[in-house]
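User:
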Amino acid sequence: MKKSVAKKLIITAAFCLMLALVCGGCAQSKTAVASKDFISKAQSLGLNTQDTTSDYAQYDHVVNSTSAGKIEGNAILWQADFLTANAADKAVAMFEANKDNFDQLSGNLSMVSVGNYNIYEKTGDGQFMYLGRVDKTLLYIKVAEKYAGEAKELIEALGY
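Assistant: Predicted structure:
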Protein backbone atom coordinates (compact mmCIF):
# COMPACT_ATOMS: atom_id res chain seq x y z
CA MET A 1 0.00 0.00 0.00
CA LYS A 2 2.83 2.44 0.84
CA LYS A 3 4.50 1.79 -2.51
CA SER A 4 1.25 2.63 -4.30
CA VAL A 5 0.89 5.97 -2.47
CA ALA A 6 4.53 6.87 -3.05
CA LYS A 7 4.22 5.96 -6.71
CA LYS A 8 1.11 8.16 -7.08
CA LEU A 9 2.89 11.05 -5.36
CA ILE A 10 5.89 10.75 -7.68
CA ILE A 11 3.70 10.57 -10.76
CA THR A 12 1.61 13.54 -9.59
CA ALA A 13 4.73 15.59 -8.81
CA ALA A 14 6.24 14.77 -12.20
CA PHE A 15 3.00 15.71 -13.94
CA CYS A 16 2.82 19.04 -12.04
CA LEU A 17 6.43 19.84 -12.89
CA MET A 18 5.86 19.04 -16.56
CA LEU A 19 2.68 21.16 -16.60
CA ALA A 20 4.49 24.08 -14.95
CA LEU A 21 7.27 23.92 -17.54
CA VAL A 22 4.84 23.75 -20.46
CA CYS A 23 2.64 26.57 -19.15
CA GLY A 24 5.66 28.68 -18.26
CA GLY A 25 6.90 28.43 -21.84
CA CYS A 26 3.49 29.36 -23.23
CA ALA A 27 3.27 32.44 -21.04
CA GLN A 28 6.47 33.91 -22.46
CA SER A 29 5.92 36.49 -25.14
CA LYS A 30 7.41 39.69 -26.45
CA THR A 31 5.73 42.88 -27.51
CA ALA A 32 6.15 43.75 -31.17
CA VAL A 33 7.18 47.31 -31.90
CA ALA A 34 5.55 49.41 -34.59
CA SER A 35 7.56 50.81 -37.45
CA LYS A 36 7.46 54.30 -35.93
CA ASP A 37 8.91 52.90 -32.68
CA PHE A 38 11.67 51.17 -34.63
CA ILE A 39 12.54 54.48 -36.27
CA SER A 40 12.48 56.33 -32.94
CA LYS A 41 14.68 53.80 -31.14
CA ALA A 42 17.13 53.56 -34.05
CA GLN A 43 17.45 57.33 -34.28
CA SER A 44 17.99 57.59 -30.51
CA LEU A 45 21.04 55.35 -31.04
CA GLY A 46 22.36 57.72 -33.71
CA LEU A 47 21.37 55.53 -36.65
CA ASN A 48 20.06 56.84 -39.95
CA THR A 49 16.66 55.49 -41.00
CA GLN A 50 14.95 55.16 -44.35
CA ASP A 51 11.56 53.88 -45.49
CA THR A 52 12.26 50.89 -47.75
CA THR A 53 8.68 49.73 -48.28
CA SER A 54 8.94 50.29 -52.03
CA ASP A 55 11.76 47.70 -52.14
CA TYR A 56 9.16 45.06 -51.23
CA ALA A 57 6.36 46.25 -53.56
CA GLN A 58 6.25 42.86 -55.31
CA TYR A 59 5.41 41.13 -52.00
CA ASP A 60 1.77 41.76 -51.12
CA HIS A 61 2.27 40.44 -47.58
CA VAL A 62 4.80 43.17 -46.60
CA VAL A 63 2.91 46.12 -45.13
CA ASN A 64 5.97 48.31 -44.54
CA SER A 65 9.72 48.17 -44.23
CA THR A 66 12.30 50.47 -42.68
CA SER A 67 16.09 50.26 -42.66
CA ALA A 68 18.34 51.71 -40.00
CA GLY A 69 22.06 51.87 -40.19
CA LYS A 70 25.31 53.55 -39.49
CA ILE A 71 26.63 55.64 -42.35
CA GLU A 72 30.10 57.11 -42.69
CA GLY A 73 30.47 59.46 -45.64
CA ASN A 74 28.76 57.69 -48.52
CA ALA A 75 29.37 54.21 -47.11
CA ILE A 76 26.85 52.15 -45.16
CA LEU A 77 28.88 50.51 -42.38
CA TRP A 78 26.02 48.32 -41.20
CA GLN A 79 22.27 48.07 -41.62
CA ALA A 80 19.23 46.52 -39.95
CA ASP A 81 15.94 45.89 -41.76
CA PHE A 82 12.58 45.95 -39.98
CA LEU A 83 9.53 44.59 -41.79
CA THR A 84 5.88 44.32 -40.87
CA ALA A 85 3.80 41.62 -42.54
CA ASN A 86 0.02 41.57 -42.89
CA ALA A 87 -0.25 38.35 -40.83
CA ALA A 88 1.85 36.45 -38.30
CA ASP A 89 2.02 33.35 -40.51
CA LYS A 90 3.56 35.46 -43.29
CA ALA A 91 6.18 36.76 -40.84
CA VAL A 92 6.89 33.18 -39.78
CA ALA A 93 7.38 32.20 -43.43
CA MET A 94 9.77 35.14 -43.96
CA PHE A 95 11.63 34.13 -40.79
CA GLU A 96 12.04 30.55 -42.01
CA ALA A 97 13.19 31.59 -45.49
CA ASN A 98 15.82 33.95 -44.08
CA LYS A 99 16.92 31.45 -41.44
CA ASP A 100 17.70 29.01 -44.23
CA ASN A 101 20.04 31.63 -45.76
CA PHE A 102 21.89 31.94 -42.44
CA ASP A 103 22.23 28.15 -42.18
CA GLN A 104 24.64 28.20 -45.12
CA LEU A 105 27.26 29.99 -43.01
CA SER A 106 29.31 28.34 -40.28
CA GLY A 107 29.54 29.74 -36.79
CA ASN A 108 28.12 29.81 -33.28
CA LEU A 109 24.36 29.53 -33.29
CA SER A 110 21.67 30.52 -30.80
CA MET A 111 17.98 29.80 -31.45
CA VAL A 112 14.85 30.52 -29.43
CA SER A 113 11.28 29.78 -30.42
CA VAL A 114 8.78 30.57 -27.67
CA GLY A 115 5.26 31.97 -27.62
CA ASN A 116 4.88 34.71 -30.22
CA TYR A 117 8.53 35.06 -31.19
CA ASN A 118 11.52 33.39 -32.81
CA ILE A 119 15.17 34.40 -32.57
CA TYR A 120 18.01 33.08 -34.68
CA GLU A 121 21.46 34.48 -34.00
CA LYS A 122 24.73 33.39 -35.53
CA THR A 123 28.30 34.66 -35.30
CA GLY A 124 30.92 33.27 -37.64
CA ASP A 125 32.80 33.71 -40.88
CA GLY A 126 33.49 37.30 -39.73
CA GLN A 127 29.79 38.13 -39.59
CA PHE A 128 27.07 38.68 -37.01
CA MET A 129 23.59 37.64 -38.13
CA TYR A 130 20.37 38.18 -36.24
CA LEU A 131 16.86 37.32 -37.24
CA GLY A 132 14.04 38.09 -34.84
CA ARG A 133 10.31 37.70 -35.34
CA VAL A 134 7.69 39.01 -32.93
CA ASP A 135 4.09 38.57 -34.03
CA LYS A 136 3.87 40.14 -37.51
CA THR A 137 7.26 41.89 -37.43
CA LEU A 138 10.70 40.77 -38.55
CA LEU A 139 14.10 42.24 -37.68
CA TYR A 140 16.93 41.22 -40.02
CA ILE A 141 20.56 42.11 -39.33
CA LYS A 142 23.62 40.80 -41.14
CA VAL A 143 26.75 42.82 -40.43
CA ALA A 144 30.51 42.51 -40.14
CA GLU A 145 31.34 40.99 -36.75
CA LYS A 146 33.06 44.20 -35.61
CA TYR A 147 29.62 45.91 -35.60
CA ALA A 148 27.92 43.18 -33.56
CA GLY A 149 27.97 45.27 -30.38
CA GLU A 150 26.20 48.18 -32.06
CA ALA A 151 23.65 45.85 -33.64
CA LYS A 152 22.98 44.22 -30.27
CA GLU A 153 22.31 47.67 -28.77
CA LEU A 154 19.51 48.12 -31.31
CA ILE A 155 18.15 44.64 -30.64
CA GLU A 156 18.10 45.34 -26.90
CA ALA A 157 16.50 48.78 -27.35
CA LEU A 158 13.71 47.15 -29.37
CA GLY A 159 13.23 44.34 -26.87
CA TYR A 160 13.76 41.76 -29.60
